[in-house]
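Input set for joint prediction.
Command: fold jointly, output tokens.
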Amino acid sequence: MFDLFISEFKRYRFIAIIFCTLQILLWVLIGKMTTIVEPHDMKNMGLIFSSCFGGGIFAFASMGLHRRKNHWTYLIHRPLASDKIHLALSMAGIILLFIAFVLPFLSVLVFLDLFTSNVIEARHYWYCFHLLAVTVSAYFIGSFAALSPMKGTMLSLWLVTYLMNTATAPLWFELVADFSFIVFGFYLASKAFKVNLQENSRNSVAILCSIVALQPVLLILLMMFQGIYYHGPVTILGMHPNSNTENNNYFNFTRKELPLQFQQLLEINSDTTNKSLIRQISLSKYHHVRRKNFRAPFKNQLFLKEHRRRFALIDENSSNLWIFSHQQGVFIGRNPNTDKVVGYLSLAGFAQQLATIDAADRFQTIPAIVDFRFVQTNDRIYTVDFKNKKIALKHQLPADEYYTKTVTFMFERAVFQSNKATYFIDQIDFDNKTKQVTAEHIIPHPTEIIYYDNVAITEVLNGFLVRYNDYHFYGVDQAGSALVYAKHDGDIKQISSYAFTENRVPSLLRNQPFILSPIVMNIVDGIVPSAIKYSTQTPKQYHYFWQQQRPFHIWLFCLLAALFSSIATYLLVRKMPLSNSNKTLWTLANLIFALPGLVAFLLLTNWHHFHLKKYRQTKRNQQAESTAELASVKEHANV
Amino acid sequence: MTNYVIETKALTKSFGNKIALNNFELNIPSGGIHAFIGANGAGKSTLFRLLLGLESPTSGECKILDTPSGQLTPELRGRIGYVNEEHTLPNWMTSAEVTTMQRNLYPQWRQDIYESVLGNFDVQPDQKVSQLSRGERAGLNLSMALAQAPEVLILDEPTLGLDVVAKQAFLEALMYTETDVNTTIIYCSHQMEEIERVAENLIIIEDGVVKYIASPDDFCQRINYWICDIEGDTKFLTNLSCVLSVKLIEGQHHIITADQNSEHFKEYLLTQGVTNPILAPISLEKAISSVLAKNHRSPNKAA
Amino acid sequence: MNKTSAIAIQIVTGDARPIFRQIVDGIRKEIATGKLAHGSKLPSVRGLAMQLMINANTVAKAYGELTTQGLLESRKGLGIFVAEPKQMLSSNEQETRLAQASQRFINDVMYLDFCPEQLTQQLLNELKLIKNK
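tokens >
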């Protein structure tokens, strides 16, 4: 087995080294132009994409070369078990991919760590491990697709998009996810690596894993199918709901101009105040609360997933950059030109020596850097005064709250949100570097929802009008909008709220991610951040099907889809030469996997060999011919 | 009952509408060199792939070394050698490295056999496999296959593309290496000269079926070559199942029959008004090609 | 005698006669013409096979046939030797063999342009040659 490992390694060693060298040269070039350790979308995507594609392409190339008839015979026909053969090839593959896609960046980091004063710590090295996990998982999943007899398994390559996701997550989660993908991928590849490549696996677990591997992409394909059976025909007939602007549904509402939205909400109650407000808002300006959700970084989170704007605090008087060290819990100031450490910043203020900073003064959680000048944790905001070398607590949330949106400046106020309320603070107070502020208005959210789709604000004579829109305002698939009036005198009241009862498209076409795969994809997408962002992302509290209140006909559809898939599978599987346990497995599995499971069955088995009448007829005819011929030869031959 | 090294029962393999092996029945006892003869596409390569467990049959079963092919263990694979015309070897390694890798896999490796066989070919240990000529690669491949001392050795057109010297060396090594194990050799070829020299048993395959199994001289005795004059219709001949071919050459009819008593056939010809039927000698090559060509369209076929 | 005598026969592929038969006929001719003396040692099966570049089993089969016909004999541990001439067949069998051989001869020469007298003369000449050796 070791010989085989060395043999496979030697085969691609040269190419791997070339890749490594080229990338190192590329990083040297990048290093001359910018700071290497500064997070940037392009760097993250570039590294992740190249690792992913590299792993996948290498899988197809190497397994494709091995798969050729005579080469496969040479590889497999030897006194060594096929799983040991695969293990040897995999080990070689991992080392080669490490050299080609991880070693370059790792070398750069090690160099910066040893020879510069850049902050390089665990989270940087964990990123390299993540790269390795990405490329190795892509390699295994690619091997699975390359070795499987059914071409449908190519679709499982979609799984690598989960590896490419840019959402930040706690380190333990990333590692568990990475590790799971490696193990899952290895298992799929190992089971696909059989002596007889034309045969489908009979192992129940392997079959289940291959069904799971296809679920995400099949869900998307099934969802896209509505373009064919609904959107297409409806557009051709000129009846597409997008063109129906009269309908009072959420889709049309949100596309109205903001003044009209506010007006519609104000017109619900014919209050006299409302009439006056309607007049006022026709002339006023509108602003939105920040679209992007805020979350403080996780300890040791993969450094390239951070946003570029959160890289460092910038001292406007000098060119120093202050970068937060997860390990030390303080900001480390560094002059990029002289490569010297200029100081440390903790909760207690600035210091010249790291050792002098007490543990109690260090940040207990990882702060984010907002707008290059604010230091924001989940429940506190600090401002830093570089000139006077001071750090001051600006704002603090009560115990059970955390920030959900960072500050936007509008109407001479600083506006941000927590999970429970919207905060308005006087802008001048907020900009002041030393004063801790109290909020002018704290407007509680109208519902339990933590992140709203869209919050718009306008100023009227006596206060602010805040409009909340969400697709799942009152519950899953129950869109709504609410309007709250926060008066400058402190009075806060909800003017109106509206539950949209009409919908743009029929309910069976909305929320297809749920109804097409209520059990499996619902759970998968809940656990692993999905690379596909649906436009109507359900809020966390409604995410799993046991948390959701849906109309009866939706549940009925789910049940019928599951039964249909299971029964269809049963009918197709009956005539196939599978073992009884495999037949039962498929039938029961598709009760849980529902429609995507049925499609997986059609893709992963050669059911059509046993069900197309024409094929069976031809075969019977041919057999009849040849038996007759055989009989005549046997008469005369002395066999 | 003798132990068969290779057994097939109603072995059928089809690819879509094409049937490669059709109720193939074959039992090969251990020992000796058995030649498989058949046209391209007759099903030989498919048979080997099925025997080695690389593909599964559409129906029927096949066994090698008394084990169903789908259940071959690594240990059993170590006792089965396989060489084909591509002589596929990792071409980025040197011949010494390839040999070492092979040697470490087979516990019963015979280094003396390896060296004596390889001595017939000009292969340097530090030469990369990619630099070897086809003949040298074939020699290396065969040396390793024989050094494994396999119980069954399957060779699928191993001398294809080899020059005269390499071919000679290859055949000598194959026939005269003594491996202590009673190796059963399956030899596939199209080259009659080789077959005549090497085979003690002929297995003729066509259209996925075994047509004949016999030793070369037994087989030759079963095929008769007649030359005669026929006036009038020859239709009576084309309907006979024992007639393999009828050719008109310069006014005379040349008829080849299989498994037909020559006395009876001569009488039959005479009753049909055929004049002067003469039995001519026929070489093994001609006999085999007549059998295989029976169903092919022949340009001189009598009307 | 321990020294192995050489068998100077040649086999031809593509001939009407199978190789097995060529060896049998070749050795018989060598014995009949006296080139292989009675009691001389033949090459081993393997040795002759290597000389002729053919399968050893075919040679073994040929030796076996010749031994059955009484032309060769196997001495345990020593090898294969040309047997002393002794008649193993009954007179009926001899006559049958003669008839068969004659028929084969006639089949072979039927299409040649010789009259029976010429054929007879040729036979007598060949026999005379053997007798002289």
